[in-house]
Amino acid sequence: MTRSIRLLAVSIFLLAIPAVLFAQDPAAAERESYIRLHYSKQEVKIKMRDGVELFTAIYAPKDTTKKYPILIKRTPYSSGPYGADKFPAGLGPSEHFVKAGYIFVNQDVRGRFQSGGEFVQVTPHVPTKQTAKDVDESSDAFDTIDWLVKNVPGHNGKVGMFGISYPGFYASAGMIEAHPNLIAVSPQAPVGDWYFDDFLHNGAFFLAHAFRWLGNNAAARPMPTTDRTPPVQYPTPDGYKLFLDAATMDNVNKTLIKDAVPFWNEMMQHPNRDEFWQKRAIMPHLKNVAPTVMVVTGWYDAEDLYGSFKTYQAIEAQNPGVNNVLVVGPWAHGGWAGGDGDKLGSANFGSKTAAFYRAEIEFPFFEKYLKGEKLAAPAEATVFETGSNTW
Length: 391
Hints:
Elements: H1 3-24, H2 26-38, E1 39-47, E2 53-61, E3 68-75, H3 97-100, E4 103-108, H4 137-151, E5 155-164, H5 166-174, E6 182-188, E7 200-201, E8 204-205, H6 207-217, H7 239-246, H8 249-257, H9 262-268, H10 275-278, E9 292-298, H11 305-318, E10 324-329, E11 343-344, E12 347-348, H12 353-371, E13 381-383
Parallel strand pairs: 3-4, 3-5, 5-6, 6-9, 9-10, 10-13
Antiparallel strand pairs: 1-2, 2-4, 7-8, 11-12
Helix pairs in contact: 1-2
């Protein structure tokens, strides 16, 4: 089996892991039971300024003797499980947040899963909004926050946003023209410019990666649904043969993707970094940023390392005096969100770097800025040095 098809097969296998593990993992069942016992769930459709309604799941602590901050994740990857009686095994950025008490909000972005509207890949920002039809991810974040602070009881007036990878892009968009109640944002491995991130690295097209990701995540959706796109089917276990037999990019679309992914055709029509790609770059729009920001990435992030550093640099350059910090650890894409982070492949880092980050950097960041806890401010840059294996 070639290396490319092994990577493809592993990627597909990983997509199926969460549901399988949940059924077999007593710890996951215990976490779900805790959330069900201590949180109430509400599913709502929040109307945006252009009339489109976005599906939003709200999990609020049942203990109403306290006020809680609101913590939002906007995602194209599903805000399920769907149903007022269905609860996830985790909420928020890590395991530390549920017991601390937050109002967690998960939202399907427009055009995805249960939300209305049309999905646009890496939605271009609209800097000048003249009518209610001039919408983008910044306006959707603003309208969502505005509805939440006016309609959800028990909050303390402070809102945070976070997200990893594509959800990291939505977190970045949320701090542009931000709602005044948005206090802290953490874009983690955020998409910054798709001509340099993910399956286009400096314009070099990663065919196998694009085929797998777009085939599994970007098929057209005829109507709102709770179902995920069926995974792409591979007619051969030989990755080299798969694309060799296709012969042309047009045939990859016709015979393998079967013309089910509109963005594939758009991408093929724009091989160079023309206006199509330029208008999808979020960095030029990261101006007048008011919230406190923590950008997170990993040295071994093969997908969005470019976007992470460029997002941090753009915020620094375009917002003098902004409270904007950077965290870089010895992780692959999103590797800080779970596990110990003590090793990657054969490289041993000598400590549980991911567990340390979640407990000592990420959790205190939101506790300080959303709850007012008297904790030390994060350093301008917290960076893990491999080799010496020290922060």
